[in-house]
Amino acid sequence: MTGLKKSVIRAGLETLYFSGAHALMRPFVGGIGAIVTLHHVRPPRRDAFQPNQPLEVTPRFLEQVVRRLRRQRLDLISLDEMHRRLNDGDFKRRFVCVTIDDGYRDTAQFAYPILKAHDVPFAIYVPTSFPDRIGELWWRALEAVVARNRRITLLINDQERGFECATAAEKHHVFDQLDKWVRSFRTADELRRVVRDLSVRYQVDIADFCEELCMSWEDLSRLAADPLVTIGAHTVNHVSLAKTPERQARAEMAMSRSVIEASLGLRPDHLSYPVGDSTAAGRREFRIAAELGFKTAVTMRPGVLFPEHGGHLTALPRISLNGEHQQSRYVGVLLSGAATAVCNGFRRVDAA
Ligand SMILES: [Zn+2]
Predict the structure, then answer these.
(1) pLDDT digits (tens, 9 = 90+) for 19-45
(2) Which of 18, 25, 126, 169 measures 20 to 30 Å from 137, CA to CA?
(3) For residue 70, how far is its CA from the centre of ligand 1 (angstroms)?
(4) Rounded to the nearest whole angstrom, what is the distance from the C-alpha of residue 115 to the centroid of ligand 1?
């Protein structure tokens, strides 16, 4: 999502909430249901520099959201049930699917007990290199490089450039610049190479983040044993598929399913595209996912579901419950579809 879209959503949420406009708009934009997405669920930390905080919510927030959803007249369902309803055109009741990306340790530690207590089915999308302990959480490596240094130098377009990052404000600024820069690369390989080089230069061990932050196969198999839990694929290396050659993109999707099957004894039917915005997954990826036989595949394009999505099952939008709108009163607004309808220009399906 672009910064502009984010600020539109944030400003829009306040306006929509306080005006009550979302309640009026709901019959027009509310659709048939929604898929919500989370990444980290963990207690707040005090550090002044937490640039990846937008990917976190607190357990308290999740608890409030689940209680709010349970009070509403909607069904909390699994991805398989959502798939059935979209296929059968069974839209008698609105529904919400809860999904969690990346398979962080805090999914087991904080999210699972809450979802279990309220009997909420949910999916975990696992990039297999994370439990295999060879994954590169490049956004964490960038954070560590900036956090641990007072100044860094970079080779940008063959020119050595220095960045002061002594204070928290400077660190935030430098991280934003770096993040924007690496996301602008045309290939996923270039991003990985630049972050690897930076990590070597500033003695950050990228592999450490897997062990520190991500569940092991044993952790995953404990969760997978619960009928509430669906394990979904999320590629092997967590790369932006649209920035990867077609054969490699196809292999990333197919291999991740095979590795999960070999490790957990279950074959995932559902896929989440890493990063998931329109720069990371588009028409080609939607086609490949369908060709590989995934029942559904989800993006990070914001939006609620409409009956028309039954014809675009590998291009489904999601509502991100991320750290930036961490107020449970917003959740009703987001699920009404009003905020994302504004952001999508009232277009229902975005599968291009
Ligand atoms: Zn992810």
Answers:
(1) 555 555 554 457 899 999 999 999 988
(2) 169
(3) 27
(4) 20
